[in-house]
Amino acid sequence: MAKQLFCRHCFELFRADRIMVLCRSERCSGVPDDRGRRAPRFIDPRAHAALWRRFRRRLVLDAPCPFCQEIDVLAPACPLCRGQLEEGLGEAVVDRVIAVIGARDSGKSHYLATVLHQLLEGGAGGEVWEPAMKAEDVALYRRHFRRPLFDQRQELPATPPAPGPELRLTLEGRGGKTLVVFRDLGGEVFDDPERLKDLGFLRYAPGVVLMVDPFAFPPPAGSPLAWAPNGEPTCTEVLERYRAVLEALPRYPEHRALPLLPRQKALAVVLTKADLLLDEDHRFWDGAAGRPHLAKGFWHDRRTDSEAVRGWLRGRLGLDLADAAGAFGEVGYFVVSSYGYPPHQPRSRLDNPPRPRRVHEPIFALLDLLAEDEQGGGAAPDVDPEDDIL
After folding, report:
1. Domain housing 131
2. pTM, to two decimals
3. 306-335 pLDDT, tens digit each
4. How many Å apart are CA 234 and CA 216, to the nearest integer?
5. Residues ≥6 apart with Cβ < 8 Å to 299
């Protein structure tokens, strides 16, 4: 059976021997496609001997473009959506998708902004992981996240219902490259299970970050925090809807190796806006200075901390995700602060630029666990023979 590749743009499988090529040169940049839309030239490498090794069934991307004759301009592409694949992905290199889910106003946009900042500018990768991002993606990051939040010190506006721009960052280290894709979503997506079905990356992600908003829970007696029910779904309801959608969507034989079901995914439960509840010297902020997130086995090494956070959430907020999270294969609990301090007033200009605290740790913990799973024989276990496979 031909090897299957997976497109991270349209989230469809295709046979490796059907991979296509895009030319990124200026001369080939405005070629009409089959619908008359102008786009980079789309080439079938099998029609050009210089681009395809017939017996090994592999692309030759260092050859000149057969149309413009320029070199270093060819890239692998999905035959279904024509999206450009990372060059390593054309050779079936595994990348990892982490989905961030949560209700409206749970802090997803600020979390993504500060995670990107820590990876690109905060040195979160240390000497282990070297981040790299294409110039166009860096420009989008600066325009949508860095300039308003860090330079102008303004809270980010509410995310519109349509998905935001896709930002692709590569972390290189430990003998390989890991592709991390960031895309912001409005909380309205999680109000409607039907809309969740149309977002492929939420289905195929082997790692999931669930944002827990402390404002969604009544504060303890004597707390200065204001609270009023706003009718938004709780993090528990968001997780239940996500689980229900994953289990209801059809699965096919070629999906057996993909992490489609909750039990094939790892879940990081993240208390966001933790600066509003935890004192500056709270023990949950300890331990970050030694950069434990860079060590192999980070997910498992922090089990004691994870259980402490879980117990705190249950005792302080009355949040018990045992039933909803029990469907997932692995569950860990984290606290983060995107600002690093309690803002003076919500929806106003920040007193200081954000000083993110521990925002990168859930991401590195999931990447650590997924890498361990892959080295152990696959990113996700096959589904059981009794499962409903179409």
Report:
1. 98-375
2. 0.80
3. 999 999 988 887 888 888 898 999 999 999
4. 7
5. 266, 330, 332, 365, 366, 368, 369, 372
Q: Is 226 helix (H, G, I), strand (E, B) or coil?
A: coil
Q: What is the model's pLDDT at position 93? A: 44
164 and 47 belong to one structural domain: no
Q: Mind listing the pLDDT tens digit for each residue in 82-102?
A: 888 876 544 444 567 788 888
CB atoms within 10 A of CB 385: 6
| Assigned domain for 263 exists | yes
Which residues are 5's β-sheet partners? 14
Specify the pairing of strand 74-77 against strand 130-133.
unpaired
Backbone phi, psi, residue 189, to 5°: -55, -35
Q: How far is CA 262 from CA 175, 229, 239, 250, in A?
A: 29, 29, 10, 14
CA atoms of 149 and 112, how far apart (whole Å): 12
Label each residue of 289-315 as H, E or C. CCCHHHCCCHHHHCHHHHHHHHHHHHH
The last residue of a domain, from among 91, 116, 136: 91
92 and 3 in contact (C-beta within 8 Å)?
yes
